[in-house]
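Problem: given the chain below (133 residues), write out its structure.
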Amino acid sequence: MEPESKHGLDVRGLRSLCGNWPGVSEEIKWGADLVFSVAGKMFVITPSDGSEGGRLSFKAAEDRFLELTDRPGIVPAAYLARARWVSVIEPGRFSTETLQGLVRESYLAVHGKLSKKLQAELGPLPITSRDVA
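Solution.
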C-alpha cells in the first residue's frame, strides 16, 4: 500500500522550507499576510493564520506565468499579476512537493534579479533533493 501523499503547504511548512535560505526574512504585512523576502524583495505571501484555505502567492518565472494560471486552482495574483505573480487559491489540489518546488523557483527568480555582488554576499543557493538526483 502506497503512503498517502501530502498536499498543500502550511505556514509551518513554508517556514521550514525557506526560513534558512540565504538572505530570507519574514514579516507580517497588510494586517495578516506573512511575507517572505530575499534581500528585502518579496517572493512568497500567505495568510499568517492559515485562512483563505492556505492560499500561497508567489512570483512565477516569466516563461511559466501563463502555464501556471491555466491550471485549475491557480489564478493571477491580485495587485501583483503585472509583475508575474500567481495565487494558488486551492493549495490542496497540489502535492506539497510541487508547491515547495514552485516556492523555490520564486526564490530563485527573485534572487537572480539581485546584483551579482549581493548574490555573492548572500552565499550559496539552497540545495534540494531534486538538485542531487
